[in-house]
Each structure stands twice: as structure tokens, then as C-alpha cells.
Amino acid sequence: MKLLALLHSPAASGGDTTTRRIAEHLSASGHPVRLEPHEGAVTAAAEDGDVLAMVGTHALLSGSTFLEIGLPYVLVLGGTDLNEYALEPVFHQVMTQAVERAAGLVAFNDDFVRRSRELWPQVADKVRYIPQGVRTTPSDYSLRRALGVGADAKLLLLPAGLRPVKDPLFAIDCVKRLHEEDERVRLVIAGVSYDEDYEAMVRRRCGDSPAVRYVGALARDDLHAAMREATAVLNTSTSECSPNSLLEAMDVGCPVVVRDIPGNTCLVEDGVTGLVFADRDGFHAQVRRLLDDDVLARRLRRHGQEHVRRTHGMRAERAAYAAVFRDLLDDLPPDVPVPSRDRVVRANGVDLCVQTFGDPADPAILLVAGSGASMLAWDAGFCELLADEGRYVIRYDHRDTGRSVSYPPGEPPYELQDLAADAIGVLDALGVERAHVVGISLGGMIAQVAALAEPARIASLTLVATSPGESADGPGLPPPSLRVLRALADVEPPDWTDRDSVVEHLVAAARPLAGPSRDFDEHAHRRVAARVFARAGGTLESAGNHAYLDHGAPWRPRLGRITAPTLVVHGADDPIHPVAHAHALAAAIPGAALRILERAGHELSEVDWPELVPALVRHTSGPEGRLSRATTPL
User: Fold this and answer.
1) pTM of the predicted model, to two decimals?
2) How would you write 130-167 as a 3-class SS string?
3) Do residues 60 and 81 make contact, with C-beta atoms less than 8 angstroms apart?
4) Architecture of domain 143-308 in this structure
5) Residues annotated catalytic, as ranges
6) Beta bridge partners of 463
7) Closest-CA residue to 166 (of 65, 118, 251, 235)
8) What is the pLDDT of residues 148-196, one digit of tens each?
9) What is the domain partition of the chain in residue ranges?
């Protein structure tokens, strides 16, 4: 099984680097990628029987080619797409066809997400925000040595291909003025030449001035080394997407000075992670400020590096692209052989649909979803992040959800204890002797019951947005928020046979559960709801059976018997199980740790992943939860 990626840009350009980085991510995730030049025999390459899907980094150039081939594809929306091509009516028409046919669309920043949804509202739910990942590998190259300048020289580096949109002429004129004031100030332009005539113009403007120098394209590792030596890295573009060069500069600890355009300011906060200018006078003032204030320069270096390493990690980017293509390939017709596709296993006497991520030899994490929720409640990106940290991640459809066994609506022939036995049955079917179990909401209750019934099978517990349940002789816990109960009661029942009606219903039911102080990502919920409908195969109404479950005898009085290391995770603004439930749960289980997610509701939002994933990795770092050597996984 292969994917195909198109190469459009010259070697060592930002576009080429981005395409190759995405291809590397996908290959590392088990989806080998064939890189094909745009001018090559793309159609013949795509017709290779092993190629299942395609990825391109231009909605116009890749899209126009992909439209002729017929395989599913994902488009990454770049700066040229939205800043230039989309403004041309003929190009816009082709791009519209391409994005409508695409299985998914990726944008690098919030501004591009907003603009692409405004341009093509009919595909707004397809657009995903995936920040660019950064990895710098400086060589032993020395730009100062190559230029023959000393340590006192103030090198302003402009890493940019020679194109009008990069506006190198602006930088040349501005730095010449600075050089007249301080001969130590020099500009170095490093990048690919796209046009011989424009290159000649740039060289004429440079002339024989010692203030400016065009050195052509540098190898990526040499460019990183040059950034590390530079006094500052510049961006003078008149329009951008999210220039990876700025992220690379911040990662190696070099201050950045950038023009005030959305593509730059989505990455750089003025005075915190870099300096922003609007015009020539602003450029002059900001560069002088940087040169004259060593304390400011050190602060920008530190904050810029911290920002990039916190929000633009390679692992997060890899997991996001792996998730996009995991979803795409899973949604292919059943007769297409996809190794990562979910499958039905026999567990606890019933048919349950399961899917795994990562190496079966790694510690296993079993994810247990909430009431009426299928495995899609656990985003593939979340699963990929955990798998990338060395975990064998298992998600599955409960009875009456997804592709698992279903029963007539309102007549569930099972109880909560049966769902707990199902969880253990999934481990049996996959040959996992012990697992770290993570349950959310009803899934957290299932995890508690399973830990009490089968303690030898549970390596650890993580209980998210859940409750210890009630006890006849224990203190009562606060009920769900009246505001949320009213909102949920106001959600109209859907026509369960109509996709649009079901999507509207599921999104409306999810909205009140989010934290009231957080933005509700309606587009992401719509995208998942559509997949939930498609996977259910006409049985989605049966998911309501979980509301009729008999929970059996209260288990809260027995929680003190749980010996598995336990982490309780709860939203501070959970309207279904107010935070008192988390405190009661943590108090009842010996040694349990409690982590409160600020502003979170009854949810596991993507904004919480950077906090929760490391916590889960630490919590599951013991030697337990490995594959049973006595049983072979399916």
C-alpha cells in the first residue's frame, strides 16, 4: 500500500521541504509515500496498483492533476494558493473543483483556516488546522567564514526564494540605509532563484555594496547553521502562509524581524517571540531596537525557542497527518485492502469492532468511550500521539455503536457489567494480558467496574470526566447542570435515516457539553458526526440504548479495593459530572492522582492533548500492559 505525493517546488525551497517532511511523516506512520515530480508521469504512477491515495501541497497544481486521476486525495493549502491563485477566476474555478473532490484539506494557521472556509464554505468541515512541525539540524557551515566577516558583524539573514512576493528589494534598500549608520550591519539573502530576470534585478540592486549579498540557495543544514550565527532572521514578504524558515530560526535561537502580515503574525508575537514592522520606518526602528538592546535579544531568543518547541513539534505534526490518512483509508470501500482498517472480533460472546495503533509489543492502552459513543470518540490524532510515544493503542465500538453488534432501540439485553466484560473481551481477542485502561464518562465507569472485576488485567486506570456513581449510604454528588439539561432536552430528535438530520442532532447535542469559556469547534464535530453516521450502517438510533442501562449494585463503596495506579482527569467546568465527582473519585481510590483541566467541560478537547498526552505517557510508563506472549494478536 502506497501514497503518492507531488513535488512542485525547486529543491531546497520551502514548498519542497514541506512536501518531503509530510511524506516522511506518513512513511513513518506505516504509509509509504512515492514522491513524484509534477512534470513526471503522475497518472501512470498513480495507476500503480499499490497506490491508494494522494497528497499535494497546491490546491491548483496538485488539484488539477488529481482531478484527472480519480483516487482519493488530501490537499495542503499553501500561501500561493490563497494569496495568489485564488484571486484569478480561471484558477479559482479549478481550485473549487479540486477542494470539493478532496477527502481532506489542511491549513497551517488559523488565518488560512478562516480564509479557506470563506472561499469555499461548501467544504468548511473538511479543513483541518495542522501547525507546521520544525526540526533543525545545523551543520558545521559558517556563514561568517564564507563571507569573510568577523564576530562583530551584524548579519541580517533573509531566507527567501527570489520572487516579488518575498520582496527582497525592500530588504536591500532598508539595510543599505542601516549600513550607512553602522557599517557592521549586513544583509544576506539565501534562497532559490525562480526567475533569471528577477534575479538579475536583485543583483543589480545589490550592486557592489558591502551591505548586501545574495548567496543563492543553501543546503538545509547549512541554512540552519547560518540562522544560528545570524543576528536576526528577516521576513519581508508581502503575503505568506506560515513560513517554516521563521520557525526554524526561532528553534535555533535566532531573533526574527517580520513584516506585519497574517502569515507572519500568526507565528510571531511582537515583543515576545519576535519583532513586527509595518513599513520602512518600522523596519528601521525594530532592527535598531534589536541591535541596541542585548537584553531584548536574549529574551526574544528564549521565548521564540520555547514557543516553537511547545506548539510546533514534529511528533504532533506527524500524528496529525497520520490521523488524516488513517481516516481517509478507513473510509475507502470495504473491498479495498487497507491494513490499518478496523475489524470485527469475537469478544465476550458478541461481535465488537476494534482498531489498533502502534506496535503490539509496546505497553497496551485500551480506550473506552462514553455513553452512545463509538471508537470515533477517541480522535485518531490522539491515538497516533500515544502510539508515537511507544504505546499500543486500542479503541473499539461499544455494543450498539459503530460497527459492533446492535439491538432494537430501547431494548438493550445487557447491563453495565456486560460492557465491562466486553472491555476485557477485547483484550482477550487481541492477545493482551494486561492493559492500561483509559475511560471517559460512561467509559470511566466501565473501567472502574472492570478494575474491580478483573484486577489482574488492569495495569493502570485513567478516569476522564466520569463519576464514582452513587451509594445508598454515601454523600450525594451534585447533579448535572440544569442549564445543560434544558439545552439537551431542547435538541430535536433526528430522522435517523437522514445524514444531514443526524449530523445536526449530534452537533447540537455535543455543543452544551463543551466548557462554557471555550470555543466550540463546530466544523470538527460535523466532520466526526458525518463519519459516525456512515459507520453505523443504519443502526445509529440503537446507540441510545446506553441510556437504559442497568448499572447494577453501586460500586462506589468498593472503590477502595482498586489496586491499579489511578489518574483522575476532569474538566473544571464539566456540566454533566461537576468537579466534585472527580474529587470524590480520587478520594475513594487509594493513591489516586487528580488532574483538573482548566476551562474544560465534559469533553476531551484537542486543546487538552498537550497536557494530557504527556501525563498519560508518564502514568503508563511501568512495565505492565505488554502483549501476552501466549496469544497471537489478530
Assistant:
1) 0.91
2) CCCCCCCCCCCCCHHHHHCCCCCCEEEEEECCECHHHC
3) yes
4) 3-Layer(aba) Sandwich (3.40)
5) 441, 574, 602
6) 439, 568
7) 235
8) 999 999 999 999 999 999 999 999 999 999 999 999 999 999 999 989 9
9) 2-129, 143-308, 342-619
